[in-house]
Structure formats: C-alpha cells, structure tokens
Amino acid sequence: FRIAVLASGGGTNLQSIIDQQQCGRLPVDVTLVISNNPGAGALVRAQQAGINTLCINHRNYPNREDFDRELVNALQQADIDLIVLAGFMRILTPVMLQAFPQRIINIHPALLPAFPGLDVQQQAIDYGARFSGCTVHFVDAGVDTGPIIIQAVVPILPDDSAATLAERILEQEHRIYPQAIQWLAEGRVKIEGRNVLIANTSG
Ligand code: GRF
C-alpha cells in the first residue's frame, strides 16, 4: 500500500507516520513526500528517512490547475494508493480530486465542522470553546468539509495560547493520523454518503 505525504511545513505529522511505519505498526510504504515549499522541514525529515522527495513549487505555475496537473503526474508515476495531506497549505482543484477520488485524506487541527480554515487554535480560544481537537477526513471540493474518518478531543485550558493548544492537539494528531492510514491500508474504510464506516478485522 503505497502512500504519498504532501506537506508544506515542519512535518511532525509526517514524522509520526514514518516512526509508526519504521517500528512495524503501520503496514504501508511511504513512497514519496512532496512539498510546495522548498524550505519545508518535512523534506529534510523524508530525506533523513531515505524517502524519495519532490519539491513542486506552486510559484512556478500560473494557476492552481497547472500546479495540480504536475502533482497528478508525479503521483501517478509513483503508483500511489493514498495521498496524505499533512500540513499541505494548498487548496486542491478538481484536477487532483478527480484523478484520485476518495483517495486523498487531510488532518485538521480542530473538531470539524467547527473551525474550518486557518489559524483555528486561536479561533477556538477566542470563541470560548472548552474543547477542541483534531479531525482526519477525506478531501472533497470544499475546505475541510469531507467525510470524517476519526477525531480526537482535547480540553482548552484557561491559560492556553494558540501555541500551547496547538501542541496539545498535535499530540493527538500524531496518534490518529497513523491510525486512520492503517485502517485505509487494511481496506477497512467504506464511505456511505457522509458516513465513514470502519469494518472490524476480527470478522
Ligand atoms: C497540523 O496542525 C495540521 O493539522 C495542520 O498543519 C499542521 C502541520 O503540522 N493542517 P506538521 O507540519 O505536521 O508539524
């Protein structure tokens, strides 16, 4: 089961996937890591783990569709089964979505459908929410709107800053993202409308 991880930033989620794979708890081949950002820490982490990397800088493309066409080419050449967005800061167009229907997942640092978009830890604090968390979901044409695979809840504490909350949420991200990928690799995930069903292994 060949996965590609797309990341724009530091890549701690990528690292958690690599770590779980390396200790034998995640039955996948992390075939390729792609970043749109030449300075992404995720690229360094991938190289350190001996994973093929590709930088496709969106600034070199006149529009989102042309950028996506380059992504599709690279992902099809690598024969990728699942595309894992991990802090990938680009909105995908139908070019990508139609090339890989139901095969792109994302992680979002809030309890969707609350707080989609950017800067969501600060938004949850400003709103006065008592809990936030993270969500792994399939990617559809909306922003953070696709069917939900798994979520984890964390408390928001009275003296939280966006940074301390983000850190508490990341701990859970590093747990649930590998879990979701494992379910997908085992072929246990079925989408029925908005509902995602996880089949039992024991049966
Ligand atoms: C994570 O909080 C993820 O949920 C969000 O971007 C952040 C990426 O962090 N979409 P990292 O690059 O995996 O450390």
TrEMBL record:
GO biological process, one term: one-carbon metabolic process
Binding site for (6R)-10-formyltetrahydrofolate: 64, 89-92, 106
Signal peptide stretch: none
Residues forming the catalytic site: 108 (proton donor)
GO CC annotations, alphabetized: cytoplasm
Marked site: Raises pKa of active site His: 144
Catalytic activity reported: N(1)-(5-phospho-beta-D-ribosyl)glycinamide + (6R)-10-formyltetrahydrofolate = N(2)-formyl-N(1)-(5-phospho-beta-D-ribosyl)glycinamide + (6S)-5,6,7,8-tetrahydrofolate + H(+)
Pathway info: Purine metabolism; IMP biosynthesis via de novo pathway; N(2)-formyl-N(1)-(5-phospho-D-ribosyl)glycinamide from N(1)-(5-phospho-D-ribosyl)glycinamide (10-formyl THF route): step 1/1
Domain Formyl transferase N-terminal: 2-181
GO molecular function term, any single one: phosphoribosylglycinamide formyltransferase activity
Pfam families registered for this protein in UniProt: Formyl_trans_N
Keywords assigned by UniProt, alphabetized: Hydrolase, One-carbon metabolism, Purine biosynthesis, Transferase
EC number in record: 2.1.2.2
Family: Belongs to the GART family.
PANTHER family cross-referenced by the UniProt entry: PHOSPHORIBOSYLGLYCINAMIDE FORMYLTRANSFERASE (PTHR43369)
Functional note: Catalyzes the transfer of a formyl group from 10-formyltetrahydrofolate to 5-phospho-ribosyl-glycinamide (GAR), producing 5-phospho-ribosyl-N-formylglycinamide (FGAR) and tetrahydrofolate.
Protein name (Swiss-Prot/TrEMBL): Phosphoribosylglycinamide formyltransferase
Lineage, highest ranks first: Bacteria, Pseudomonadati, Thermodesulfobacteriota, Desulfuromonadia, Geobacterales
